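Hey team,

Filing this mostly as a record. A colleague (T.K.) asked me to run one chain through the structure pipeline before their review meeting, and I want the input and output archived in the tracker in case anyone asks later how it was produced. No errors, nothing strange. Just documentation.

Input sequence:
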Amino acid sequence: MYLLGYDVGSSSVKASLVEVESGKCVASAFYPKHENTIISLKAGWAEQDPESWWENLKLATADVLSQSLSLSKGRPSIAAIGISYQMHGLVCVDKDGKLLRHSIIWCDSRAVPYGDAAFQALGSEKCLGHLLNSPGNFTAAKLAWVKENEPEIFDRIDKIMLPGDYIAFRLTGKIRTTVSGLSEGMFWDFKENRPASFLMDWFGFDEGVLPEICPTFSEQGRLSFQAAQELGLQEGIPVTYRAGDQPNNALSLNAFEPGDIAATAGTSGVVYGVSGKVDYDPLSRVNTFAHVNHTSEEPRLGILLCVNGTGIANAWVRRNVVPRGMMYDEMNAAAEEVPVGSGGVGVYPFGNGAERMLGNKETGFGVFGLNFNVHTWKHLLRATQEGIVFSFKYGIDIMEEMGMKVGVIRAGRANMFLSPIFRDTLASVTGAAIELLDTDGAAGAAKGAGIGAGIYKDHNEAFSTLERLAVIEPAADSSPYLEAYSIWKDNLHI
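Output structure:
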């Protein structure tokens, strides 16, 4: 018996087939093989055709089924389907379920003035106290842009959906969403434990545009005859889990309880910490959403920190500073020749746009303490990796101010987590052990489906076979790391 997971990203759609008993991913595929097209008609705009998500999902499914046929000599018996998806997007359909326009996706910034206007008019106490965030550039503000700029489309909207809701609709014919999804769109009122009518009234939205709410782990519909025909699957397979990519990444790493932290460090970096109380950052430097296992009786909130300048900073140093042709493992070895603290050199890796945790300031990439007679490119190389870690630590400090205690940091062994310096520095400066695990978003969504279908009794059983690749403990003497961070923080001018 198998579970099928989909991860619908802005770059590609990935499908993974997981064997229930072993918990192993036996087949996976992603499409397109190049990055999916992002339509940008104006600066700051970013749209995608939801039909392209569906077409790529069909291709990925066919590839996975082909792999499984060669492995098992027969079509796999799939017990349930789970979905992970790019967060904060807006999909609009009419009363017949037909698309009215392309999806305005997560990295589109046109709606910022609409969210800001709502925040100013309604007040920080109301917005933060009820939504746990500023309305910002999230889905509700994107819908406000459509209302003002495309009234003929707005008037025809029957339902709005997040990207994962749309994929579930194409699979099952049912238009539904989750509390976690509504919270990421700024449609959920945590104080009233219901949709945020005060914000919808201010924007002029009818609450009827919101889909029916279903639990994150539940039967949310069954694969329709039409979808089964298109995908080559058996009709009636239940869809039993859906979540945004960051909550799903945390689920994939078995981060469910207060103090658990899931981290990624690719081009940009994300620290997603689970909190056990409904709270917010008064300066709105981090975002707070309902986690996959949140209930009003037992709150589980995901506090999300995004650092734009992480792996992209390390890549810039590779292109412009280190000897030409040097690979990342060679860079890591060279940086290890320099002691902790990089001989007094510090780097601020904020060269990839405005950083929310710095009050949306665009400070740029910065270097301090560089002595031309003492330091080499190796010092700058290590300082860059340390600076990336220190930016993570700065955000984690904000989370701790909100009362979240850091327990363990879980991550996949990829990108910056391949660097020993990065891992050792992060463990030592936060005091948290780092667990590197073998998983990805699509495989996590498959296991989420297993929980939702009742195949696994809980998340501990679902992830009991999750392979731990390595554990990095803090240094026995963390004082050099903490001193370097203190100097870095003292020199940060924002």
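Quick notes for T.K.: The chain is about 35% helix and 20% strand. The first helix runs from residue 50 to 72.
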